[in-house]
Specification:
This protein has about 170 residues and is of the alpha+beta class. Helices cover about 60% and strands about 10% of the residues.
Length: about 170
Amino acid sequence: IASCLVGSEMCIRDRCYTFKEMRFIMETRKKLAVEAWKSGLNCAQAVLVTYADLLNIDKETLFRISEGFGSGLAGLKRTCGALMGAIMIAGIINSDGNYNNPKTKKQTYELGQKIINTFEEKHKTSICYDLKGFKDGKVILPCNLCIEEACEIVETMLLPLKYLSLIHISE
């Protein structure tokens, strides 16, 4: 993968995009994730499989890994599944993959906390039960918007980490 940032363009995989085109791509991915959810995937799956191509992992594997994380962790209405999908992406992107001597766990935990905190700053909670209004009938954020926000976090916070070492800034 070759990436570079030149002037007002970002080049990934030998294709340059203007920032306007990158924004369109981000909006398209959010829509794809919501469509995946509408077609029957849970919220964690919808977020995770939307980025399969950028993570270089096939959709079926990501689908299986994230199957138990929807509806607030196994349907228990705890931490939002869409956010857990984003946190899984953080692990895939950040982990050193060193099974015998892992050194990135703390950094990945910090990324996960930053994801949750970013979401909570905006919505005051990351708990599915509260977001969906099960306690008082007041819906804070429906699933489709949780998925869109999780995608926004992936694209603004995590994907730049994946490509940071590959980006070269030139005047």
